[in-house]
């Protein structure tokens, strides 16, 4: 226990290992180690972290990034004396601080983390890790997939990972993609799960043993002691429960797994022929199955002579024919098992996932909008059911583990096969709270995804609250998609629909695709609605039913919409005032409001709105000087407005200086945040604004609520000395967020694409 002044001088001289161990002593002495960790970041990482102004703990930030860099081999611990400590194990000692991890390329990180010498590291990650990301993945071989399976099983099924995100995978490996999706949803086929848990996962093995013992106790209590024991093809009288009988229970479970493995494995044409010859009365049904139905099992038993035997004989016969999973293959399942599981899940009929009532209701549905919630995906382009072995393996037969609550897919093309898989997984993914599908090239497959969501909405314990869908082309009008999703999910809190361009073939939709324009929207819990129109006209008449159903709406964002007539924006404001009295945030982006000055002023004087954004709305394109004065006077009188964002409206120096009057002595404004990014502001204009603001603050005796100013992408590089003086003086007044933007290069880039 050193005195505080000695400890303060000692801390900067410690290695990372010693500094971490001294954290508690420093805290008790009232000392902060944050400056030391920040200096470590600057010296070792040599980069500026994104959103550095929001970092609250540099210790965690450094150790988390340090772990990732060491794992991927981009940081040499011998490069700095503070990292080079013989007591310091880089991955082991930093892993408890890792809450998010990114795996990329050939998944080398997964292989390293599942190595025997990193078992403790993996255990630490199972406790600390919350977000698992995959980026720029490449195709991988079977051994790497095995490592990935073990990693996902430990971190998701037996860990704390709640979010899986995948980024930038232009040509995804279908097997690998579906494997990640399925395990994120908590699914893994029993045969594979048993093979992993019996040889690798101690948690599964302990759970399985406990369940076997509990099952044994229950059987004993029910008085089945005089029953027959199934063991090695011989009948024996059952003795009182003993430890070896628990092993017999496990053996029975393995036999069931073997049966499932046989039934789920695709058969060759010769097997199909033998099936037809062996079954003259009961044909094989490969196209439809209710999960776990007795008819299906009996049909399959009819097709397999080996399976017509009793369970006692089945175990022996299958063992002789080497059709069970064999121990001689080592700790991993058959390589084909991955492919079997992945593609049978993709072909799974949604009806097998539904409860009996919803399956019955959905049998005769023609499309997902007209059928009851929970109906299967049927008949839409890109979402057609396949014949053949479609129903051989039901997701109900898969082992179900813990699943994540957030799934994000960014810039990953999804084929029809993958969309069918995702639809099936979504239909019972009740733990899912956030779904983000961004730039996946869905096209007509959007209906397949909607079908899975519709089935999910039937579950009373469904937790889905946030849905974000964005893409380049829209296969249906934005408002139709909004109505479709809200009609199925009135409990959503956030809905975001965003498209860049209108599909040129939208008028010629595939036959059978439903129209959602007349879908009834029940009263919803929606709090945030974001719509990016692909240059579609904003028809308030289509938006009003959504607004009326969303009485709790607090945030509305409209992007890239065109206004078909001058009255349209006024009609929208009237609808908002009537339908959404609790609206707190309103945002317009890339919409021409140059001719709607009166509506802009009405919004700025709204007594309920707390945040208003006019982003790239050309506010001052055809305005007079009087319009800016009206804006300033309106904001000065509004005591409820907290944030005003005006990026991309060509304010220039003179308008920026005028905005300082919002904070004058006679103002009743409560404005805290002002965003003037991308507004052609030069250093001299910023300095003049700063001086005027300082004068108003002095007149008000220092009482001002202004706290944040955003200055991204302005022309501050044209006079660095003046800009630095202005920023220095501003930072004494409020928090300033800016960047080192090269205006000359940006202008050259703009000219080059004109």
How would you describe the overall organization of this protein?
The chain has 754 residues and is of the alpha/beta class. Among the domains are: 1-63 and 79-88, no CATH class; 99-188 and 401-475, Leucine-rich repeat, LRR (right-handed beta-alpha superhelix); 584-753, Leucine-rich repeat, LRR (right-handed beta-alpha superhelix). The chain contains 29 helices and 19 strands. The protein has a 15-stranded parallel β-sheet. Strands 4-7 form a two-stranded antiparallel sheet. Helix 10 (174-184) packs across helix 17, helix 24 runs parallel beside helix 25 (625-637) and helix 27 runs parallel beside helix 28. The longest helix has 22 residues, at 243-264. Residues 190-200, 224-376, 378-394 and 506-515 have low confidence and may be disordered.
Tags for this entry?
single chain; 754 residues; alpha/beta; Leucine-rich repeat, LRR (right-handed beta-alpha superhelix); 15-stranded parallel sheet; two-stranded antiparallel ribbon; 29 helices; globular; ubl conjugation pathway; repeat; signal
Instruction: Write out the CATH superfamily name of the domain at 584-753.
Output: Ribonuclease Inhibitor
Radius of gyration: 32 Å
Poorly predicted runs are: 190-200, 224-376, 378-394, 506-515
Q: Would you state the CATH class of the domain at 584-753?
A: Alpha Beta
| Average of pLDDT | 76
Total count of helical runs of at least 4 residues? 29
- Biggest sheet strand order reads 1-2-3-8-9-10-11-12-13-14-15-16-17-18-19
Compute the separation of the termini in Å. 67 Å
């Amino acid at each position: 226990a050193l005195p505080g002044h000695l400890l303060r001088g000692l801390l900067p001289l410690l290695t990372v290992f010693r500094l971490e161990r001294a954290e508690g002593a420093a805290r008790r002495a009232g000392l902060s180690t944050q400056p030391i960790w920040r200096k470590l970041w600057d010296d070792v990482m040599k980069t500026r972290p994104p959103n550095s102004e929001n970092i609250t703990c540099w210790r965690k930030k450094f150790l988390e990034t340090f772990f990732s860099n060491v794992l991927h081999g981009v940081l040499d611990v011998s490069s700095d004396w503070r990292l080079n400590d013989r007591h310091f194990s880089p991955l082991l000692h930093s892993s408890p601080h890792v809450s998010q991890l990114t795996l990329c390329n050939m998944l080398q990180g997964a292989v390293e983390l599942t190595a025997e010498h990193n078992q403790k590291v993996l255990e630490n990650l199972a406790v600390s890790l919350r977000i698992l990301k995959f980026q720029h993945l490449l195709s991988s071989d079977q051994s790497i997939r095995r490592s990935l399976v073990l990693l996902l099983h430990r971190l998701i099924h037996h860990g704390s990972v709640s979010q899986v995100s995948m980024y930038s995978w232009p040509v995804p490996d279908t097997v690998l993609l579906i494997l990640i999706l399925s395990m994120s949803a908590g699914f893994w086929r029993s045969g594979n799960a048993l093979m992993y848990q019996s040889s690798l996962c101690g948690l599964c093995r302990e759970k399985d043993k406990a369940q076997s013992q509990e099952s044994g106790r229950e059987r004993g209590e029910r008085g089945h002691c005089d029953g027959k024991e199934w063991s090695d093809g011989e009948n024996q009288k059952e003795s009182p429960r003993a430890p070896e009988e628990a092993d017999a229970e496990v053996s029975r479970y393995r036999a069931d797994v073997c049966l499932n493995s046989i039934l789920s494995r695709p058969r060759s044409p010769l097997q199909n022929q033998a099936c037809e010859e062996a079954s003259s009365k009961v044909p094989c049904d490969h196209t439809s199955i209710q999960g776990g139905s007795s008819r299906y099992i009996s049909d399959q038993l009819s097709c397999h002579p080996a399976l017509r035997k009793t369970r006692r004989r089945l175990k022996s016969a299958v063992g002789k024919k080497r059709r069970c999973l064999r121990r001689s293959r080592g700790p991993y399942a058959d390589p084909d098992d991955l492919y079997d599981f992945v593609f049978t899940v993709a072909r799974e009929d949604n009806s097998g996932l539904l409860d009996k009532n919803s399956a019955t209701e959905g049998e005769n549905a023609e499309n997902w909008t007209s059928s009851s919630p929970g109906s299967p995906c049927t008949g839409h382009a890109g979402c057609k059911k396949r014949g053949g072995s479609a129903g051989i393996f039901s997701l109900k037969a898969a082992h179900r583990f813990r699943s994540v609550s957030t799934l994000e897919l960014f810039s990953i093309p999804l084929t029809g096969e993958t969309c069918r898989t995702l639809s099936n997984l979504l239909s019972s993914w009740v733990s899912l709270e956030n779904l983000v599908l961004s730039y996946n090239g869905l096209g007509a497959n959007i209906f397949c995804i909607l079908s899975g969501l519709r089935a999910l909405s039937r579950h009373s314990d469904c937790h889905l609250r946030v849905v974000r869908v964005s893409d380049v082309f829209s296969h249906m009008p934005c408002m139709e998609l909004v109505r479709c999703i809200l009609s199925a999910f009135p409990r959503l809190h956030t809905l975001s629909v965003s498209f860049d361009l209108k599909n040129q073939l939208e008028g010629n939709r595939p036959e059978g695709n439903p129209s959602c324009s007349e879908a009834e929207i029940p009263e919803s819990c929606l709090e945030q609605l974001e719509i990016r129109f692909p240059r579609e006209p904003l028809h308030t008449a289509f938006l009003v039913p959504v607004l009326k159903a969303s009485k709790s709406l607090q945030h509305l964002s409209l992007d890239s919409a065109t206004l078909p007539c001058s009255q349209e924006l006024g009609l929208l404001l009237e609808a908002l005032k009537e339908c959404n009295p609790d609206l707190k945030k309103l945002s317009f982006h890339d919409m021409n409001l140059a001719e709607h000055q009166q509506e802009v002023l009405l919004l700025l004087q709204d007594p309920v709105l707390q945040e208003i954004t006019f982003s790239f709305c050309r506010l001052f394109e055809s305005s007079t000087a009087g319009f800016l004065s009206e804006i300033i006077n309106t904001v000065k009188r509004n005591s409820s407005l907290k944030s005003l964002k005006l990026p991309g409206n060509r304010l220039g120096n003179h308008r920026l200086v005028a905005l300082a009057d919002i904070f004058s002595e006679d103002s009743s404004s409560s404005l805290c945040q002002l965003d003037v990014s991308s507004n052609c502001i030069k250093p001299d204009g910023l300095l003049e604004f700063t001086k005027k603001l300082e004068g108003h603050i002095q007149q008000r005796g220092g009482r001002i609520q202004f706290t944040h100013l955003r200055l991204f992408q302005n022309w501050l590089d044209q006079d660095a000395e003046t800009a630095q003086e202005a920023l220095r003086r501003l930072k004494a007044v409020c928090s300033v967020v800016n960047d080192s933007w090269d205006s000359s290069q940006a202008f050259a880039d703009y000219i080059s694409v004109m």
